[in-house]
Amino acid sequence: MNKNSKYLLVDQSVLPEIFLKVIEVKKILSIGTIKAVNEAVKEVGISRSAYYKYKDYVFPFYETSRGRVMTLFFVVEDFSGILSSIINQIAIAKANILTINQNIPINGLADVTISIETEGMVMDMDELMECIGKVEGVRRQEILARD
Fold it and tell me: In CATH, what class is 69-146?
């Protein structure tokens, strides 16, 4: 990449399939289920040359968020233990919690903002947000900011 590179955040649904497959190969190689590039590209169904052409230019969102501070926002139902369940999911991901702010519930719902440091995470942000979204009582979740 050159120093004049510009980055875009693009929804994967509009990307050419090759970019998604390159990311899939990178994930396979990073988790170690397949160790050789030749085998990984064959598994995904792309050529080695296509992988090498794009591998240094295509990244999943979580890869660019490693070592960053992420601010997460949730709307949760007001019942005992829900915040603990959310924090447990963050702990499972091995993210470092920096701040937690929970507003007073109104009409049975409360806003929660949690800032985390992502350096040591063992899962990507999409997986973490999906896990938190499955916690009973979490009505909405989103990434508010990334530093």
Answer: alpha beta
